[in-house]
Design a protein that fits this description.
5 helices, Multidrug-efflux Transporter Regulator, Chain: A, Domain 2, three-stranded antiparallel beta sheet
Length: 89
């Protein structure tokens, strides 16, 4: 049984996760956040992916990883096991 994902607009993400519009664009351009769908000129993001990726970005940034490396890790499918083994503070 497939569950329906919640789609978030850029405004939703900015408000919910307290990111600036510039940060959201930068993360999207780096591939840290993926646009799931477009509705006219509006970008829509999968809510679960946004939450998972932003948590991973925050954790790995705290560990000193640069955003470009984090982007590569996320886009190359860093397994959830590897993510969970990343040291946490």
């Amino acid at each position: 049984m497939k569950t329906t994902s919640i789609l978030l607009t850029a405004s939703d993400i900015i408000e919910r996760y307290r990111l600036s519009y510039q940060t959201l664009n930068y993360y999207t351009n780096l591939g840290l956040l993926q646009v799931a769908k477009r509705d006219g000129h509006q970008r829509l993001y999968d809510g679960r992916d946004v939450q998972r990726n932003l948590q991973a970005v925050a954790r790995l940034k705290d560990e000193g990883y640069p955003l470009r490396l984090i982007s590569r890790m996320l886009t190359q499918g860093l397994s959830s096991l590897e993510m969970s083994l990343a040291p946490q503070r």
